[in-house]
């Protein structure tokens, strides 16, 4: 089954009991057993719920994975992944990375003796030189947040596997519609399902998808059922409904983003535009090689911090808000919002400063978006 059909139909496609085309919301905490030592396959919704199972199986199929777990947030999913590691382990991460990921690593899991090192994963030689004897995983965002750096998934996977390490890829920015890291050699994919997979800014969710690696699957099963950060049935149903239109949404967002990225370069107050779909992006050819689309995320810098700050209050159509991936266009100020708690030296290293704005492009009429951004960014 091809991707767009799979997005519309899902794993089962309909309720096999009633024939309902909209997969039902099994809003039940517990399930009746026919007799002792007999089960319908469902016992308690924290462990397994039919609606959530349909979501998990559908996303696993989209990412070409063996198993998927749906979490109550993307950060809950990352927290579960970090529990795969032990005291003394070393993990390499993209130095340009969502601030919440940096926070959970540095403020929480470093207390357990796990060592985290942030490097430029868009430079394969830097990655190679940074691997140590105790490196157990490489965690990559590609494109990265917010500087849109692109990492070579296939090349990094070869390096990781040569050192018996896992490659984890955050695929939030492109979604499985545009990029499938597991087919390129990655072992684990993480999504903030809140973003493109949901696409309507009305669900907070996380998804972790794994290749057929039995030890990892067994441990994640244990973590998942023990900690209880599972996604509820109603949110699972909303996610299923949203994924039906994934292709339509992200392709329209990409279309708008391509037009806006080129147009932003013409504004006198804009000094730099970072979008992987621009031919002058340093990783444009790599993007063509490992993805089927460029996505809807643009970052750009303006001439001064004053212009950036004032623009946020002048917006009329575009929303000044955190998050991304929804049908509404959002403008974010990373240094004060998504990356406020990241180490200042790390932000300076990658170029996140008070002139940088991040645009999550929606599906509105692009001319309306241009008009609003033009007046907001004017001096």
UniProtKB/TrEMBL annotation:
GO terms for cellular component: cytoplasm. InterPro entries: Cys/Met-Metab_PyrdxlP-dep_enz, Cys_met_metab_PP, PyrdxlP-dep_Trfase, PyrdxlP-dep_Trfase_major, PyrdxlP-dep_Trfase_small. Gene3D superfamilies: Aspartate Aminotransferase, domain 1 (3.90.1150.10), Type I PLP-dependent aspartate aminotransferase-like (Major domain) (3.40.640.10). It holds the Pfam family Cys_Met_Meta_PP. Keywords: Lyase, Pyridoxal phosphate. GO terms for biological process: transsulfuration. Belongs to the trans-sulfuration enzymes family. This is Cystathionine gamma-lyase. The lineage of its organism: unclassified sequences, metagenomes, ecological metagenomes.
